Amino acid sequence: MRRWFQFRKKKPIIVISGLPRSGTSMAMKMLESGGIPPLTDQVRMADLDNPQGYYEFEQVKKLRDGDTAWLAEAEGKAVKVIAGLITYLPKDYEYRVLFMRRNIAEILASQAKMLENRGEDSSIDDVEMATLFEKHLKQVRAWMNSQTNLLYLDLDYNTLVSNPKPYIRQINQFLDGGLDVEKMLTVVDQSLYRQRK
Q1: Residue 63 and residue 15: Cα distance in Å, rounded?
Q2: What's the pLDDT tens digit per position in 165-180?
Q3: CATH topology of domain 8-185
Q4: Domain chopping of the chain, boundaries
Q5: HSE on the CB side for 21, CA within 13 Å?
Q6: Per residue in 115-127, pLDDT tens?
Q7: Lower CB density within 10 Å: C or N end of the chain?
């Protein structure tokens, strides 16, 4: 494994990605507890659907428009970039991506509950949405595999929540060590694993 932290003046940007409701906020909190500062603006506050916070940075949403100046501030930090935006990351930086994966049925159930809590309805049925998600994930994986400035690690949310220690050790190794593994373990809260399938 290449060790960018040791030999580069600039540190890679640590990107947490995945589909919405796949555990990206939990992964951000884990890294923060482990010692990696998050890039977040606290605009979107914690709520019933994400009681530990969303860990979002509003400018990420402007990647599609070519707004990338903020990435210089993200070096050596963790930033959440959903799967729908990750392919807009420029080649000017090096990235370590933790890509969250979760049972699609659970993602759909979690999204439905969130929409219900907001008084909104989904206009697309679950079968169609699951097909779109699977197609999108294949496209994102193909893109990540084609990048020479990016390394990624797949993390299965379901396994991470049920047996976190091996995964957290793997994350620590992937990020060249030095993380507080014990503090990261305290972030995993079984009570927040809702919408199980």
Answers
A1: 14
A2: 999 999 999 999 999 9
A3: Rossmann fold (3.40.50)
A4: 8-185
A5: 19
A6: 655 666 666 677 7
A7: N
What tokens does 120 get?
Answer: 């909104």
Centroid of chain to Cα 92: 21
CB 163 within 8 A of CB 110: no
Residue type, 195: Q
User: Token pair of 83, please?
Assistant: 């799967």
Q: For residues 82 and 57, is the Cβ–Cβ distance under 8 A?
A: no
Residue 194 DSSP one-character state = -
Which pTM does this prediction carry?
A: 0.82
Contact predicate 101/18, CB 8 Å? yes
Q: What is the CA radius of gyration of the chain?
A: 16
Q: What confidence tens digit (pLDDT) does each residue in 83-122 have?
A: 999 999 999 999 999 999 998 888 777 676 666 556 666 6
